[in-house]
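Posting for a labmate who doesn't have an account.
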Amino acid sequence: MNTVWSFSSLKTFQQCPRKYYHTKVVRDIVEPDTQATLYGKTAHTVAEEYIRDDVPIPPQFAYMQATLDVLKAIPGDKLCEVRLGLTRSLESCDFDAPNVWWHGIADLVVINQTQTMAYSVDYKTSKSARYADVKQLDLVACGLFAKFPTLQRVKSALLFTVSKEFVRADHYVEMLPKYMQKPAEDVARIDAAKENGVWNPVQGPLCKFCAVKDCEYNRS
């Protein structure tokens, strides 16, 4: 079975293979939306519609206005919610293509006039950038390099809309295989777990919040 993965699904496996098995493989457990995830989805929609269509920002998201105006002022072609896919050979494909291996979505991409450089921004609605993980940016940059072959550089950022912090990273097309090396090793562990049928749970501080209620480590 081909493993189709994303940044979030790979993090789930790294956190706990047992949770990954139930939520991503057999899918007998669905994690419900929380107040935080619903808020994040709405904030993403607000940002997308403002950048793309100039839809006014609702009052409850007015704190995002100044930061989004900075993004709107960047010269170049602005693309919102860009769906990306890569095959195992790191070639571009549709997000849900039969041969897709990795897929992800870039919240905002701005491509410069020469088509050689792009800005890539991912919106985050958590209150602080303290635990920012730029590995997500690595993956999106790989998808952009494959989808837009003229790109040589991607200037990436996680934008924390509440604290107005940018966590930046620069990506270069010649580094694409290196960006994918460690994630590919982790995906190989998923492939091995599928082959062996072994999905050992990992105990951690988040166990009591986990949707897998029959796990021996769930104390909720």
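Reply:
Got it, the structure tokens are right above this. Residues 207 and 216 are 10 Å apart (CA to CA).
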